[in-house]
Amino acid sequence: MMTKEKFLFEVIDNYLYLASLGCMVMENYLLEDRTPDYIICANNLHSCLSFYDQIYNQLDKKEYSEQEVDTLLTCLIQSLKQETLKSINRELKECARNYLPDADQFFNDYLMHDRKGNIQELTASVLIAFLRRLRESETAYAEGK
Amino acid sequence: MQKNETMLTPVYRYVFSVLDESAVTEDRIRQMRVFKSHLRKSACILTETKEIESILDCTIELLERFHESEEIGQDFWNNKLKALQCDSCQSCYHCKKCRIYYWKELGEVLLQKTNDEKKSKTYFPVRSLPDEIQRHLEPSASISTLYLSRIKRDSIGVFRNKFLMLKGMSSSTPAMLNNIFDTNDYVGGGFYLNWNGYGVAIDPGYSFVHNLHHYGLSVLDVQAVIITHEHIDHNNDMRLLDDLHFSAARFDEEKEKTHIIDWYMDEISYAMASVLRTERSGFKEETCRLHRVMAGDSAELKTNELDVTFFPTKHIPKDGTYNYKEHTFGCSFCCKNKVQKKIITYTSDTKYFNGLLEAVKEADMVIANISGIYEDDYMQIKEKSTHLGYGGCYNLIRKCSEKYGRYPRFYFLSEFWNGKSDIRYDIVKCLKRELEEQGITDIRIIPSETGMLYDIEDGSIQCSQCGQYTDEVIVKRPTGLNEKIEVLCRECYF
C-alpha cells in the first residue's frame, strides 16, 4: 500500500522534478519568466495531497480496495508526468520548427530515442544532451550550413 | 516507480491482479465495473481518463463475452486486436503500442495461451520489477555517479607544481609481501608530476591507481602517462588507469568526454596497448592517444610550459650478449614558466653508465631507482648489471658533481628491493656519509616514500607531519618493517 510519504516522493520524483526541469530549460531557452508554471506545479501538488486524503477516507470506509487506491494514485502520478513530458516536447518543438525543416523527425531521433534507437526516459542528462544538439542545429541554420 | 511506465500501466496491472485471483466470474466483472466508476469519480484530477475508461470498457466487454462463451470471447478478442493494430495510440509518450501489448497479454491470460516461454517474456506495461531487484536499481546515487562526483572534486590545487611520490618501499615485491603478511599495506606505485595543472603519471606499477586515489587525485588529473619499459612494476596499472578513465568518460555526459590522455610508451607496452585497442578491449581512440617512444625522442606535453625528453637506459640485457635492449628509456621533464625553468629527471631502471651523467647533469631534482643492494655492490667490487644499486648511485652523484659545474642538488632514491628488510634509511645514510667524505656536502638525498611531495618551483619538501614546505628536512628512521619513512621539518622533529 502506498503511504503518504511514498506518494509524495513519487510525485516529486516523477512529476515535480520533471516539471521544474522543463521550466528551467524553457526559461533559459526563451529567456522568459515561468512563474505561472511553477504556481501550477504548487497547485497540482496541493491537489495531489488532497486527493490522497480523500481517497484514503474512501478506503477507510471500505468503499475502495487497497489495490484500487494504489492504482488510482499511480495513474495520477503518471498522468501528470505524461502531461508534463508532452508539454515540454510540444513547446520545444514549436521553437525548433522556426529553423528545423523536419522538427518531428529530429525530436523522434534525438529526444525520444537513444543512439541505438531504443525509447529513452527523459532525464536531466538526456534533456541537456538534446538541447546541446538543438543549439548546434540552430547555429548551423543561422550560419546557413 | 517503474521506468517507462505510462498512465495506462497501473490500470493494466490492476486488471491482471484481479484476473489472477480466480477465473472470470460475475464477481470479477462487477469488481471491474466498480473500479471504472471509481476512476470516473477521480476524473476531476486525472487527465485523460477517457482513454483508460475506453480500455476498461473493452476489457469488461471481453470478460462478459468470455463469461458467456469462450468462443465468443475469442472472436471479440481477435476483432479488437485487428482494430488496434490499425490504430495508432497517441495517449502515452513512451510507447505507441502499449495497448496492443495489453490486449495480447490479456488474451493470452484469458484464452490460456500462455506457456513457459510466454511467461518468461516481459511485456513492460504489465510487469513490475520484484522489490528485491528494484531496491538495487533505484538508489539515489549509483556507484558510477558517486565515483564521478568524488573524482571531480577540486583537489588539484594541493598538487599544483608538485612532484608526488606514489611508490612505496619496493615496486616489485608488494604482491609477495602482502601475501606473506596477509595485508594490503605494502604498495608499489609510480610517480605523479603536476605542472600548471597538467598532470603526468610516470610508470604506473602495482597499486598506482590506489595510491593516486588515496592522495586525492583521480584519472581526470592525469593528462599524460609515461611508461619507461614493460616490466610489471612499471606498467601493471596501465589497464586499470585506462579503464577508469574510459568509465569516467562513458558515465559523464559532460566535459569528461573531451578529457583525453596521451600515453607515451616504450615499444613493448605500446604493442600491448595497441593489441588491446585493435581487439576493442581498451585504450579506445576516443579517450587516449598512444605514442610509441624511443630513446632520443622528445615531446611537448603542454605548450611552452612542459616538455619531456627521453634518454636511453641500460636495463634489459639482450640474450647471450653484454648489450642491452634499446627500447627502454628514462625521462627528463622541463617545467617552464615566465620566470624560471626547472628540470626533473627520472632515471627509471638502468645500470650506471657514463651516458647517464649527460641525462642528469642539468636536473634540479633526480629520482633514481636504486633497487636491491648486495655486498659486492656496496663494496663496489661488482657493479649491478640491470639497476643502479648502491655503486651506481654513488658513481652517478659523485661523477656528476666532479665533472660538471652545475649538477643536481636533490636526489630521491626509489624502488628499493625489500627482500629482507627496510634498508632505505640506512643505505641512504651510508651513501650520504661516503659522499661527504669525498667533499660532496651540498647534496640532499632522501629515500622515497608514498605521499612525499616535492615543490618543483622552490625545491622544498613537505613535512610529513605539519604539511609545511621546507628546505631543511630530517629523515626519520622507521621503527618497524612496515613503517613509512617520514621527512620532518626541524620543529616537528625536535
Describe this structure in words.
With 145 residues, chain A is mainly alpha-helical. Helices cover 78% and strands 0% of the residues of chain A. Chain A has one domain (4-142). In chain A, helix 1 (4-30) runs antiparallel to helix 2 (35-60), helix 1 packs parallel to helix 3 and helix 2 (35-60) packs antiparallel against helix 3 (66-96). Chain A is elongated and about 65 Å long. The model of chain A has no long low-confidence stretch (mean pLDDT 84). In chain B, the strands form 4 sheets. Chain B has a 7-stranded mixed sheet. The model of chain B is unreliable at 89-96 and 118-127 (pLDDT under 50). The chains are: A mainly alpha (145), B alpha/beta (494). The A-B interface holds A 10, 13-14, 47-48, 51, 55, 58, 64, 67-68, 70-72, 74-80, 82-83, 85-86, 89, 112, 119, 121-122, 125, 128-129 and B 1, 3-7, 9-11, 13-14, 17-18, 35, 38-39, 42, 45-48, 52, 92-95, 253.
Short description:
The complex is a heterodimer of chains A (145) and B (494). With 145 residues, chain A is mainly α.
Question: What is the strand arrangement across the widest sheet of chain B?
Answer: 6-5-4-3-2-1-14
Q: For the report, how would you describe the main beta sheet of chain B?
A: 7 strands, mixed
Question: Using only CA atoms, what is the Rg of chain B?
Answer: 35 Å
Apparent shape of chain A:
elongated
The CATH superfamily of the largest domain in chain B turns out to be: Ribonuclease Z/Hydroxyacylglutathione hydrolase-like
Number of helices of chain B: 19
Task: Give descriptors for this structure.
A: 145 residues, 5 helices, B: 494 residues, alpha/beta, seven-stranded mixed β-sheet, 39% helix
